[in-house]
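We store sequence with structure; for instance:
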Amino acid sequence: MRIPIASLLVLVVAVLAGSVVADQPTGLDCLVQSWETVAVASPVEGLIEQITVDRGDLVTRGQVLVVLESSMERASLEVARARALTEAGIKSSQARVEFGDRRYTRTLDLFKKELVPLREMDEAETGKVLADLALLEALENRKLAELEQRRVEAALAQRTIVSPINGVVVERVLGPGEAAGRAPILKLAQIDPLRVEVFAPVTMLGKIWAGMQARVIPEAPLNRTYNARVIVVDRVVDPASGTFGVRLELANADYGLPAGLKCKVRFFP
């Protein structure tokens, strides 16, 4: 028995309609937001020497954004490096150790033959011990100098501020010549991926779950369809509105979709 073409079309439409979660005939309202917004500040106080980016610039993780005036720190680093590379104290102590060993060996041989008194033997042994301690002190001083160099390097590194994320500069709050402290210098936004926030009606509880696929359609003029994935479904319902929150992740590798747009979303099991 043949099935009329019109009946087949109705059947196909019915199947496709059944693949969409109910209670969302026109899609749910949503908002496209940046994945993360960061206010970049300085860990130390200082005068801003240079800001390498401006509003709208794309930045990558680890990129230098701000440089503080650091002439004092650079000078301190040169001193610390010079101290860490000093070898004179160690070499002189090593020479004393070698001399003390030779003297102790000679004196011990003579002492065994009863050719030198006990006092001279005691002086040779004490000199050897003191030379060993002097070498140990010189090595410890060099280790402290190396640690001081690392401390100064860390202090200097704090005066170069890098981007913690891949994203875009939203705002430049301060400029060169201004004092950096607790106030933010720049504001960054990570827009790959994007975060889509939805408030779904309580009737959809149990019909949306993490990992579920969805289609997001931003407002005009960017009203094309984007694929997204559910990553968070709130377990607490807002009694005032009768809704619960849902968060989706939307890939935006080409940065083609800006954050801040209103949108519609439909969920697919």
About this structure: Residues 1-19 have pLDDT under 50 and may be disordered. The longest helix spans residues 118-157.
